[in-house]
TrEMBL record, chain A:
CDD domains, per the entry: TM_PBP2
Name of the protein this chain belongs to: ABC transporter permease subunit
Pfam families: BPD_transp_1 (PF00528)
Gene Ontology CC terms: plasma membrane
BP term (GO), one: transmembrane transport
Automatic annotation (TrEMBL), chain B:
Protein keywords: ATP-binding, Cell inner membrane, Cell membrane, Membrane, Nucleotide-binding, Translocase, Transport
Lineage: superkingdom: Bacteria
Name of the protein in its database record: ATP-binding cassette domain-containing protein
InterPro entries per record: AAA+_ATPase (IPR003593), ABC_SmlMolc_Importer (IPR050093), ABC_transporter-like_ATP-bd (IPR003439), P-loop_NTPase (IPR027417)
Gene3D superfamilies xref list: P-loop containing nucleotide triphosphate hydrolases
Organism: Palleronia pontilimi
GO molecular function annotation: ATP binding; ATP hydrolysis activity
ABC transporter domain boundaries: 2-230
Pfam short name (any one): ABC_tran
Amino acid sequence: MADRAQPLIRPLTLLGLGAGALVLALVLGSVAAVAWRAERGTGLRPSDWAALRFTLWQATLSAIFSVALAVPVARALARRRFRGRTLLVTLLGAPFILPVIVAVLGLIMVFGRSGWVNAALDAAGLPMVSIYGAWGVVLAHVFFNLPLATRMILQGWLDVPSERFRLAASLGMRPRAIFRQIELPMLARVLPGAALVIFLICITSFAVALTLGGGPRATTVELAIYQAFRFDFDLSRAALLALLQLAVTAAAALVALRVSAPDAMGAGLDRALRRWDQPHPAFDVAALGVAMAFLLVPLGALALRGAPHVVSLPPEVWRAALRSVLVALGSAFLTALLALPLAVAIQRLGGIRGRTLEVAGMLGIAASPLVIGTGLFIVTFPFIAPDRLTLPVTALVNAVMALPFALRVVVPAVEAVEAQFGPLATSLGLRGWARLRLLILPRIRRPFAFALGLAAALSMGDLGVVALFADADAATLPLQLYRLMGAYRMDDAAGAALVLLALSLVAFWLFDRGGRVDADV
Amino acid sequence: MLTFEDVRVTRGDFTLSADLAIETGARIAILGPSGAGKSTLLALVGGFLTPDSGRITWGGTDITDLTPSERPVATIFQDNNLFPHLTVTRNVGLGLRPNGRLSADDRARVADALRDVGLAGMGDRKPGDLSGGQQSRVALARAGLQDKPILLLDEAFSALGPALKSEMIDLVLRLAQARDLTLLMITHDPDDARRLKGQTIVVADGRAHQPQDTDALLADPPPALGAYLAG
């Protein structure tokens, strides 16, 4: 009933509008710089078309494989109750904060030239497989997105009212009939959205393509941008390719807007459906077992290989680790600085104006990190040496990329607090900073800290824009790790990967834990 | 005196009009069917809703356009009356200092207010550690410190049992007596209205009626109220 018009000029609202304007300026400014600098006349070369084709091809296959393999896993999790199920569902959320390059190195330990799979094939006298190239890129994308797909599809399963399964049981429907009548319609609704989300993630993939792809047949547009930069130092071409990338992302995002994406962040995934049809468990056990092996064995292999080498890592690895910690803290700080006033302003403005501001905050999704990075490079390099900007720019771009996830969590939290306690706070005269300090911050502590933990972990493991800006002396840990891999120092690389993994997990855990300690809800 | 002068609110199908006057120091019960607009009437006084037309005055001053905290009004809501993350002392202290910063003197006043409602020494607890009745007392203690001449109770005690509810109403009456407050209380129970020993506003059929003596009204209720009470 609180429909009293509030004055618009309130400091926090202004700060939120400012944060939205900053993100808007950063993204659109980069795009404008890119458009201005883009090469004219020559147009796209055959190799650029090949990069575009490969980008779409690998994203399509990655989406199809991830979703198809996720269906049996999600079904097993939906209809079986067993010890460790909650832990398993939690683990499925972990790839989100798992640094891409760490996972890639783990996959190389298993599927690489001297990895476990090839050793077995060789011993059996079979031809070896190569993880480098197009199929390696798809493999790594499936590794990352199978868990995400599983969570989205599991949500679909849990959204089916349990009464339907009870009714099916009372009618004596067989598992096959239940699948056709209840589960298939649900899948038809959920799968396109899930596939589209994964497709979107994969078309902006850079780190996977950088490490496993390359060459004429496995170069994505993002990788082509990087190569135009680093190898040819051809800014105009990089800008042209950035425009191409932007067009692809925008087109895919427009399609995505028409298909509703399923929710993977939702709470309550740890509850199991009560089901009366329990077919033989062999298939479900196999589905879970294979999926877990696929996800955990690479990390296990990495741990075995890397653990002995952590203590003897060269000093430049530790220096890079320190830089990564600083960047992650900076990114979390910037995310907090942007997300909090944005969320408050979105809640206060409400309605269409609030949603518009939210879209501005989400813009990081539309532009890829390398597009923003290219734009920032074009704008800044006439004035400042790029390597001096490496760490601040990396932290800033990472924060803008983490902001959509933060807003997804923090905006509903602020809205819930205001709905519940807003009238009381207003009648007592809690305004501005006092309202923030006494009401909003204490009550959104948990989701806010969770969002900052995500931002810190994402930034810690990010290998994207830093690759454009950094020179030999300013590498972050993911970049240092990439260089070790490039030099075939696999023992050191595995050790560094373990350090990076630990730092990412600890960063997330510390923030998240900080939000939970002593919180009254 | 609190007056509604030709006040009208329309929200879709819903309308409420009010043209009435409430004496300073009156104890008013608000009765009427669900959805008739009892809470709307209180929201108009509290400043959570602005009328489409007409004006509201207190002591001759137009308060129609004041924000909720600028109004001479303290409110106890149906629920969410306390911030669960703040101690009892800090919750009550917000009635004195909306910025939450309490001086030693403020703390002493808060302790006195808690003693007055029978919660001496409970200041360091959090609302979650208190019973429903105790939570209502904390809200009352805070309302007492707010130093506002009008106290609104929006079904504030509806979650309490009958005995506890009567006890709370008696406590409210004592507070009103001591501070010369004007009371407006929404209730579903005619016994609550009788207990206030004052007047009643009937809200029915899109209209808030002029307050009438409660006992006389309940002895011979008008048709709309009679149907509601009998229903």
